[in-house]
Every structure is written in structure tokens, then in C-alpha cells.
Amino acid sequence: MSAEGKPDTEQRKHLLRQLLEQRGAGGAPAAEAGPGAAARVEKLEDAREVDAFHARMRHLAGLGLSDPCFHSLEGPAAGTVVIGGRTLADFSGYNYLGLAADPRVKRAAQDAIEQYGTSASASRLASGQRPVHAELEQEIASFLGVEDALVLTAGYATNVTILGHVLGPRDLVIHDELAHNSILLGCQLSHARRLPFAHNDLDALDDLLRRYRGDVEKALIVVEGAYSMDGDFPDLPRLLAIRRKHGAAVFVDEAHSLGVMGPTGRGIGEHFAVDRREVDLWMGTLSKTLSSVGGYVAGPGKLLRYLKYTAPGFIFSAGMPPASAAAALAALRLLRAEPWRVAKLAANCALFLEEARAAGLDTALSGSTAVVPVVVHDSVRCLRLAARLFEGGINVFPMTYPAVAEDQARLRFFISSEHTMEQLRGAVSTVARLLGELRATAA
Asked: Which helix (H) or strand (E) holds 302?
């Protein structure tokens, strides 16, 4: 304990770990009780993990750290956002090309509501679909240069249901160790053998396939077009060479690369100018660049037809609301018609990254994408920095243990084509100044 009666640095870190650890979300899970030793719980609200969560939240308040979650946004977010009547520079959302508030996108959604109502009301397989659903799928397939596409109601559910469906117990799935939670859950649901490889280490991927490919029926490699924690991406041409060498299939999640990578925003495939047919499924979300909600998979017509009739998360779920499909369709058409948005985003990303590195900030592996982390290396300091930035008019979300390792605690800046040069430079200089002050205070 410090002389002032406050917890010292190590004590604060220990308390923060206790607060943030969730069962199954980092570290080892609680030990299982022996036979007959479990306490009886009759109501879910009385479960020990629920009580532990609330105790940890009280610890957080006791450390003087405010909850950074669930701010009430009073309008659309792109370069700025209004929270509590204040206008802040916003770096917390994925509206990469600024289309979420575009009048043409909003009008498309409004027109769809007038024509089709607010809900698809049932599964598209069971009760039919609205024309806008098929139009959106055709537009996605055309934009990506593949034969067909399928849209679902959520990006998270897309990964879970498709990966859980195309693999089985006789198969192998090998994924990057930093794959999104939805990928991990889909792989687990499939009951295929699951092997992670070190982040972007394609030598390790090659070795795993060499050792295990011969034991299974199907082998699927799963990677992301741009990783949401570090803003980096895989060497796709080399990955495809490994795929050919071992006879494996490939699934690429483009949630953070569609509209961001490539001269016209067609993603990592365009960035590397690969043959689209070498990737079995291109997956993406509609909630980021395409300013709506939902997910899609795109690829060969034979495979997509099979998925439209058999994927559980599609056939047993109500279809995407027509307004959401119409908004995504309008945004995609604007992306095609206005490639200057992609160029502006690329310039903003390059400027922010250059300024951050020049200021001595640790930007980890980021490069050529709209995700730029600023690694703070301490969860308590990261939360304090986010709070001080918020007070100073900058909205950015902290990622702390156990979402990342304690020494990798960070702020994640999501860059938009709507940001001005002044906002980007101002954010970097403010972060550098406040971080320096916090480090000096700690010292």
C-alpha cells in the first residue's frame, strides 16, 4: 500500500485482473467442484459468476475507473459523434467510408420500409424473399468477382453457422491464433479438429498442414483480411501457395478489409490481385463499410446453392429486414460509384499512422488498414487515458486484460474517410501528451 493509503501499481493491476477476468474469457477457468460439493443455485441471477461480475464492477469503481461502455450516442458517428450533448472526435466506430448517414443510404432504407414493411417476418427459405435480398446478393457477388453470395442477419452468426456447417468430425480447421471469437465458436461447433497457428506465421501453417492434412477428409484454413486488434493482414498469395501445396480450402473473413483494402475497396483479394476462385468462401459484414447490419458469404455458385438450402443459421432464422438489405445495397453501389472514398480513407490511415509513429506511440503491427492500435502496456493506465481523452473531446475505446495480454493493453483507433487532417493530428498529439503525463505521474 502506498503512503497515501492507495493501492500500489501491482495491487491495482491485481485488482483490475480480478475485475476483468470472466469465466472462459482469459486465464484458467475456476476449478470444477467435486461430486456433491456444488452449492445449489435456483435462480440464474444468483449464480456465482453473476455475483463475481458485480463484485468486480464495484472494484472498478473503487479504483476510480469509470465504465467506458454503453455511451448513449445522440446521432450518427463518422468523424464526430454527439454524446451527452457534447460533440467529440470519434474513433470508436467502423463507419469507414462515412456512408451510415449518407442521405441516399437512408432514403433507400426508408423506401424499403414503405414498400415491404419493417420485417422479413419469416425464413426466406420457408416463406419467400423480397427482391432486395436477391439484388444485394447479386451485387456482392458481382463486386467481389465471384458467382454467388448469401446474406444473413448478423456477421457474428455468419461465421458461427457457416463454419459450424461446412466442417465435421472427420475434418481439420487451422486458424490464426488471433481469429475473432465468432470464428472460434464456429470451429468448435463443427466438431472438427481445431489447430491455431501463431499470428501470421505461415511457416507454422505450412508445418501443421504437412503434419496433419493426411489424417482428415477436409482441411480448411481460416484467416482474416484485416485483424481488428492490430490492423495487420496475412500474406495472402503465399497462403494460397500453401493451400495448393497441401490441397486445403480457404475461408477469408473480410469484416475489416472490405471497403478498406485495394484501390477500389474490394478487400485483401484486390490488394494482392489474387485469383478469387482460389478462396472457397469470402466472408464479410454489412455493419462496417456497408453501413447496415448482417453478414455475407460469397464464392462458387455450387457451394452457395448448397448453403442457401442447408445452413442452419440461415434456414432456421428470419430473413434480414428489407430496410437493412436496401441500406447495404445502396452503400455498396455508392462504394462502386465513388472510389474517392476509398482513396480518402487510405490517405487518412497513412497520415494517422505516420503521425502516431513520429510521436513515439507504439502502433504494434498496424499497416495499410483502418485499425490503428496505440499500445499503452498497462490496463489501469489505458482506462485512465481513455477517460481523459473522453473528457478532452476524443472518443476511443480501451482494450484491456483479458481481451489482450496485460502488457498489450491498448486504445484502438478506427479511422474513417470522414476524419479531417486536423482531427487526426489533434488526436495523436493529445494522446501523446496525456500518455506522457500519466507515465510521469506513475513514475
From this structure: helix 301-310
Give me the pLDDT at residue 38, please: 76
CA distance 341 to 346: 9
φ/ψ (deg, to 5) at 69: -95, 160
Give per-10-residue mean pLDDT for the chain (443 aa). Answer: 46 49 40 62 92 85 80 84 93 94 97 95 89 97 98 97 98 97 96 97 98 97 96 97 98 97 97 97 97 97 98 94 97 97 97 96 92 93 93 93 85 96 97 92 79
Cell numbers found for residue 132? 432486395
Cα angle 331-286-182, degrees, rounded to a multiple of 5: 165
The 10 Å Cβ neighbour count of residue 372 is: 27
Contacts for 52 with CB less than 8 Å, ≥ 6 apart: none
The one-letter code for the residue type at 437 is E
Q: Hunting for cell 470464428 — which residue is that?
A: 183
Question: What whole-number distance in Å separates Cα of residue 130 and Cα of residue 137?
Answer: 12
User: Domain boundaries in the chain?
Assistant: 1-21+47-63, 80-95+339-442, 103-337
Give every CB contact of residue 434 below 8 A, 6+ residues apart in sequence: 385, 388, 389, 392
C-alpha Rg value of the chain to the nearest Å:
23
Question: What are the backbone angles phi and psi of residue 297, rounded to the nearest 5°?
Answer: -125, 145
List Cβ neighbours of 116 (8 Å cut-off, separation of 6 or more).
130, 132, 322, 323
Phi-psi region of 22 (alpha: psi -120 to 50; beta: other; left: phi over 0): beta
pLDDT reported for residue 401: 78
CA distance 147 to 54: 50
**Fold type of domain 80-95+339-442:** Aspartate Aminotransferase, domain 1 (3.90.1150)
pLDDT at position 61? 83
- Measured between alpha carbons, how far is residue 118 from residues 111, 115, 320, 322 in Å? 11, 9, 10, 7
Instruction: Kindly list the strands in the beta sheet with 397-399, ordered across the sheet, starting from the edge strand earlier in the chain.
Output: 371-375, 410-414, 397-399
- What's the pLDDT at 36? 57
Q: Using CA atoms, how far apart are residues 190 and 249, in angstroms rounded to an integer?
A: 15
Where are the extended beta strands (E) located within 14-90? 80-83, 86-90
CATH 3.40.50.300 fits 103-337, yes or no: no
User: What count of residues does the chain have?
Assistant: 443
